[in-house]
Amino acid sequence: MQALRLHPGDDLRTALEGQGGCGFVVAGMGSLSGARLRYAGQAEPAVVEGPLEILTLSGSLTPDGAHLHASVADATGRVFGGHVCAGCLVRTTAELLIAPLPAGSLAREPDPATGYAELVVRRP
Predict the structure, then answer these.
(1) CA–CA separation, 31 vs 21, rounded Å?
(2) Which run of H or E residues covers position 14?
């Protein structure tokens, strides 16, 4: 396992994609000044005003990009969740636990059935 701490102003998605390599984000907590989350079936992300607490964060990391989902709570305790888009900026800290996998074990390739670049698992 690998621990990672992000700092105020870091973009959550961009920072994780910048890690390169293959693996899974297995846990994440911290705070955001605001979030951009894409809800199920929606084409564009919603803007969720902060401050926000990160309740959950998980996903997959490949050299071709990340697939991340999060749930966040606002100052009144309302919870929002969805696909993490660029624009989720760290407010004070984000503490993440990543399970790295061997290089080349994960990729993203277009899937004609879904129309999206989907995860491909390659076994050595």
Answers:
(1) 25
(2) helix 12-17
